[in-house]
Queue: 3 jobs
Job 1
Amino acid sequence: MALLNIIKLGDDILRKKCRKVEEITPRILTLLDDMKDTLLKADGAGLAAPQVGILKRIALIIDFDDNNKIYELINPEIIAAEGEQQELEGCLSVPNEWAITKRPMKVTVRATDRNGCEFTLTGEGMLAREICHETDHLDGKLFIDGAVHVLTPEEKKEYFE
Ligand code: NI
């Protein structure tokens, strides 16, 4: 088990576009394992490779409606989106900030798993938000970009105290 350092807002790495994974090497598998440990330890909902300093198109998300199942998405691509939701969102790389974001209510993502097999995953509600949030990271986009509303300190108190 290895915990990776989570890069925080202000570091240029978070703004870079990630490269496609061309081959699933032992290094990629180790990265997936380490990202999982890091995500669980940080108590997050998802984690993208640039958040640990790796500019590759890899993201992990947790499905809280399905026994906290962890999905490993390699080269994820959103292939369908419908509806709209506006909910509260945060990010391990942007600690103590929360914002209402506008996301599709339902999305389908196509990705490759650690065995090199392509799969699709459809998520609604929170899972849809996670898929969008993590794939955005791979293009250097953060949830606070174009958020509907970033919570003020007073609002944060209302929500969390
Ligand atoms: Ni994030």
Job 2
Amino acid sequence: EQHTVLLGRGGSDTSAAYLAARLAAARCEIWTDVPGMFTANPRDIPAARLLRALDYDEAQEIASTGAKVLHPRAIAPARATQIPLEIRCTQHPELEGTLIASRPGYASAQVKAISTKGGVSLISMDTNAMWQQVGFLADIFAVFKRHGLSIDLVSTSEMNVTVSLDPSANALEPAVIDALLSDLAPLCRARRIGPCAAISLVGRNIRGILHQLGPVLELFEEQKVYLLSQAASDLNLSFVVDEEEAGRLVRRLHAHLFEGHDAPLELGPAWQDLFAAPEPHADAAAAADDRWWSRRRADLLLRAAAGTPRYVYDQATLQAHARHLTALTSLDRVLYAVKANPHPEILRLFAAEGLGFECVSPGEVERVLSINPDLAPERVLFTPNFAPRHEYADALARGVRVTLDNLHPLQAWPDLFAGREIFVRLDPGQGRGHHAYVRTAGASSKFGVEPEQLDRLAALAEQAGARIIGLHAHTGSGVRDPDNWLQTALFLIEQAARFPHVHTLDLGGGLGVPERPGQAPLDLLALDARLAEVRAAHPGFRLWMEPGRYLVAQAGVLLASCTQLKTKGDVRYVGLDAGMHTLIRPALYGAHHPIINLSRQTPRTLTAHVVGPICETGDTLGFSRRLPADTAEGDVFLLDVVGAYGAAMSSHYNLRGFAAEEILPTPPGP
Ligand code: LLP
């Protein structure tokens, strides 16, 4: 006898799994609105990566700790019958999905996902009755049972038991909690903590990889962790923290675990790379930005034919960015931080736009002045760090302005500074920036004089006969929050109180540009407005800034040629003739640069790691990038947003030679 049954929505995955089990199906495909399970919820973290393979236990754990892709109950019937479950995306059948099976290709211990559950309440119960007591836990758990409350995580010590109540399993109305607390009162001192969020790191044998989590656990340094629980199944490690802190923490955890160059190789593409790009060929960041090069493909292909790897800088973009900054009314001077890109043509162009220059070595000073012989030396600020004595002597002799970054020069070489006007770099205490290596303030940074030493600084300057006319601070690089420079300005103004001759405040550089899809640009007008208020309140000071990246990053692209293709295990590789010797930012900081195959406009359905020719595993320019499926040897690739710290940081490692560099002139107007 046959029955027709209607399978409702919201449960159809469980029904499908049961049917597959009954039919002893070879496979059960769940076609849904997302391609699979991800390393985090892509709505919160667009950089979340597709999980290509999970075993049943991992999938079950991810489903039950927060992800909504599959109902946790759908997994048991498949596991019992060992039927592989495959999640696929209805709207994008070309995308690979998540395969859930008992033997995924790689079963090593590793964190697979971060899940978050909000709205969690903790009940913390203090007692001195528990120590060597029989039945205390049974007594208090009985109270929870009486109130129909299901406990999720538990941690116990001699004096305290803390449990979490999962909102998806309980109706956590205040009245229910109040009744619970009053029934617990005779047994212990109970209180509610919340709202909290449970953040779980999910993966097989999580105990076996605790040592790898060292840097990840450091993220909890400033964080109150109410409860830490490691599942007996060894599949998850959960932290309960204040709910409002959870988003920030998860973003940082995710960046640490899944976005850097240490990210596991077998992860699939990032959500943002799959869905953020409207055009098939353009990378999301580029498309969002309407990048200059998308209108100059033909020119670029021609340039690539002259030889790759090759950096190409767009003159119009360089000029436009210089003018964005010279248009800011709150600034008296914009100095270009030459370290970002010392290409001679760029130095000439910026001098013509009226910029000054910030140099950190005699080589930079020499190049700026020899390219621009008419430039007044006082428009150059020399800001070295731990430089030898003779570099200061030479700079002063050339008439450029000099910034001291330590007390040492005044202490050890007072004669050098007698009768001189100098700047001093201060440490504002709190570093900012896109990576720990570029945060240049605070206790762990080697830069600047700390405020506690300013009396000593003033005394040393006085003894040497030097006059401190400028104060300087730079918090770090790649900052997109305009308040950063407001805070720096206020800090410097406060410190300037003890230096009567100070008339100039250099607020540093660090102006960030969007690097990953979905990042908002720095709001320059907001920056200008904040600094204008500072000026109005403190008209005695001139304000300077010294950006590098902002002026050049988006003007530059790197052209490279595809050398070889390879598949190893599950992982595809696309090789380029550019590598970490040409562009070290991905290897050094885990930086993200959009990578586009300029030669092909076909749909990007190949997921591959883009690597260079250098003999190091770190020589990867991009992980799991979406590329045209017909990518082939000889194709011209473009790496975007590389005008800053690209060529400037390249090396001759492996004796591979430097990339060519050139400026793409603005075509004559109509
Ligand atoms: N001023 C001082 C004192 C600096 O130390 C720096 C950068 C700047 C200005 C310019 O910062 P910018 O505006 O370019 O962010 N190689 C790293 C960046 C290192 C920045 C070092 N100092 C990167 O590729 O991101």
Job 3
Amino acid sequence: MRALIVLCACFFAVTNLIAQSFMMNPYGCAEVQSLNGKWNAIVDIFGKGESMKLYQNRRPTKDTEIVEYAFGGGLTLDVPGDFNSQSAELKYYEGNVWYQRTFAAKKNPNRRQFIYFAGVSYEAAVWLNGALVGRHEGGFTPFQFEITKLLKDGGNDLVVMVNNSRRVDGIPAMVFDWWNYGGILRDVLLVERPQAYVQDYLVQLKRGQTGVIAGRVTVAGATKPQPVTLSIPELRLQKTLTTDERGDATFEVEARPQLWEPASPKTYAMTLRTGDDLVRDEIAFRTIETRGTDILLNGKPVFLKGVNVHEEIPQRLGRAHSDADAAAILKEVTALGCNFVRTAHYPQNERICRAAEKAGVMIWEEIPIWQGIEFSNPVVLKKAETMLREMIYRDKNRGAIILWSVANETRPSDFRDKVLTELVALTRKLDATRLVGAAFDNIDYDQATSTFTLKDRVADAVDVVGVNRYLGWYKPFPADPKQLKWNVAPKQPMIFSEFGGEALFGRHGSPEIAHSWSEEYQEELYRKNLVMLRNVPNLRGTAPWVLFDFRSPTRMHPQNQDGWNRKGLLSDQGQRKKAWYVMKAYYDSIAK
Ligand code: GCU
């Protein structure tokens, strides 16, 4: 059995890596055609579609022929968007949905064409004009395939099979506390690039130095070393690099950019040009590091006034994906007085990351290793590594992202410790410019000394330890909050990365009765947690769980929840609960 698992692991790794022709920031390229809009769709509950060859999108060619499917004239779905919120019958759907659309193209023999998916949950298979172009697993990171050889002049037929079934060896796996939205959740782009194009780049401050911009550029498709020009006009910086035989070039250049910080989120327009390929981006320059128990932003200690957000617009009952959605979420993040957001529990769409950067909000970003993961299965480590690579690949130039997190609330075991410490090491290898973290709920409490402690090899391996603890909700306070002591990761910065409790907006009752689901109970719970947090010597940030009420099939109380996790500081209609004002006052009391 083990041999078979190992074989599968290798197969998965090879499949996914071959499929990935990686591309950095297609939004910054010149020729990008959006394929968003209404797509035809077929719900394939029994998963017969691939054996029926739906991807051929056939029509009858003779009177005696029947074809028992057709794209068009039936269900249509908006792309981007989850399918669950587009049709009442699909609210709880988990399985295969086939999407199809045609698009016109004009082939240019001197250019290369790619199809880019910003995010498809959970698994995708893509065909163009009847030919398989690739498959991808992972619901929250982008992928793309080169289609140069398959693209036709005129009409092209694009078919995507999406499957959002949960799976034992998935990331996340069989149970998680959010809606299992499936579909083509984010943008689909047709991207055209020259034969030799900028495939990847990193442009950031050299770690710990505010006067040196360093990074690297990779040019794909070049047959010989290429000149690449990096320009940051506002810094009067123009530097031409020459790639090596592999297409790579690294650089360091002296510069004194204004440093990005929450109070002044300065970004610089940047271009990279090679031949007739031009990529544009906006870069925020800042340093982030730890020193003992402090987190230093641009060399100065910073307290992370945060909040957790899911990628969901509750008023619309669906996944967030647009600039307007990002603005709506960030508006409430900044209204709460936050300079920090944890985009739980998966890489959220690029627009939210860019909006946070513009708004001066630092980001903790994570892959969806959430609670029950099959760490003993080698395939799972390969999948996690791929998701980590794709997350860092996409967002490494987002200065607002200060921390990559590898896990949320996982149980210590030999397998789990090995997988997570390997992911921590890989994160550091992929990106030496940021902090590495994880969120832990396996906190011990000693009644005799009223002290919380944590003994965990993974906590020892990260820079920043996140603690999730629902005192006053899942467990009562074990003592007077003022008496509680914390001795967790005493030599590292600790962030209270999740705390809180549920309340139904407009439900009023006693602040002492938890099962009232009253705003007053939630308000008092927040007050008690904040009193306790005064006693945490290495506390360097807080992120209450959660900004908005959000949908979850695990929340089954018909009156109080009805499929909603009610821990929001705001209701699913954006109404601020009493606890919101407690957090607002706390953050306002902390010096900017
Ligand atoms: C956990 C978990 C969250 C979950 C929350 C809750 O800590 O990280 O994803 O929603 O607790 O129970 O509400």
